[in-house]
């Protein structure tokens, strides 16, 4: 079945460091891929998405490219800030768009 | 426009009691999804509902769990005779009648603790 594998955390970085959170997926057909973010005490928010191969999703300085050949959707940011501290979830939705499959989440802490 | 509202935020139940989790979708949203976040396991899909209909309940445990989304009022996730293993965070999401996948807005979750 469809699934998402996400790098384990926690990740601790200094401010302005480069961030990569790896995400790979297994899916039949042509899924859409997402990154969600959960700030402390809040619900999940959609951070970015890509709906077809080679699409790049971007938002708030974060980017991820839908790589079908490597079945990956790694999240990157060139220079993290303390306010980026949160838990990040990689997810995919099946072709119907009715079901989502989430990774286990990666906790990021950015220290000044 | 208020976001997705879940209540209570925290719920403590003794083993064998019933737990009721409520989710009020965003205004204009008629699709509701429930997810369970277990420690170390990430989010797991449970059920997808539209008004008065269960569309996909493939993620719901076969026993003790039920969900509804009535014509009026919030969506309810009901867990009967709770056990310790039901302790988790339960998230609700809503989306409008049409739109691209991923355009779901999540509530803040209900943390259920079974003692």
List the helices and strands and how they pair.
The complex is a heterodimer of chains A (112) and B (115).
Chain A: E1 3-6, E2 11-14, E3 19-21, E4 23-26, E5 32-38, E6 44-50, E7 56-59, E8 62-65, E9 75-77, E10 86-93, E11 100-102, E12 106-111
Chain B: E1 5-7, E2 10-13, E3 19-24, E4 31-38, E5 42-50, E6 53-56, E7 65-68, E8 75-79, E9 88-95, E10 105-106, E11 110-114
Parallel strand pairs in B: 2-11
Antiparallel strand pairs in B: 1-3, 3-8, 4-5, 4-9, 5-6, 7-8, 9-10, 9-11
Strand content of the residues of chain A, in percent? over 45%
* Helix/sheet category of chain B: mainly beta
Strand percent estimate of chain B: over 45%
Percent helix range of chain B: under 10%
Biggest β-sheet description of chain A:
6 strands, mixed
* Radius of gyration of chain A from CA coordinates: 13 Å
Helical region count of chain A?
0
- Topology order of chain B in helix (H) and strand (E) letters: EEEEEEEEEEE
* Straight-line distance between termini of chain A: 41 Å
Mean pLDDT of chain B: 88
Which oligomeric state applies?
A: heterodimer
| Gyration radius from CA atoms of chain B, angstroms | 13 Å
Low-confidence stretches of chain B: none
């Amino acid at each position: 079945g469809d699934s998402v594998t996400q790098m384990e955390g926690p990740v601790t970085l200094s401010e302005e460091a480069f961030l990569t959170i790896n995400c790979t997926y297994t899916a039949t057909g042509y899924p859409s891929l997402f990154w969600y973010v959960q700030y402390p005490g809040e619900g999940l928010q959609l951070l970015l998405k890509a709906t077809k191969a080679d699409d790049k999703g971007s938002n708030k300085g974060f980017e991820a490219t839908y790589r079908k050949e490597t079945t990956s959707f790694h999240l990157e940011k060139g220079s993290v800030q303390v306010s980026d501290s949160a838990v990040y979830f990689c997810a995919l939705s099946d072709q119907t768009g009715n079901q989502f499959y989430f990774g286990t989440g990666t906790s990021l802490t950015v220290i000044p | 426009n208020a976001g997705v509202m879940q209540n209570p935020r925290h719920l403590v139940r003794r083993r064998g009691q019933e737990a009721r989790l409520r989710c009020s979708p965003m205004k204009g949203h008629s699709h509701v999804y429930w997810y369970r976040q277990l420690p170390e396991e990430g989010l797991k899909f449970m059920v997808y509902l539209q008004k008065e209909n269960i569309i996909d309940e493939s993620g719901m445990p076969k026993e003790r769990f039920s969900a509804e989304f009535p014509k009026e009022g919030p969506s309810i996730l009901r867990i009967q005779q709770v056990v310790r293993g039901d302790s988790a965070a339960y998230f609700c999401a809503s989306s409008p009648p049409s739109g691209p996948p991923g355009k779901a807005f999540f509530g803040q979750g209900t943390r259920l603790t079974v003692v």
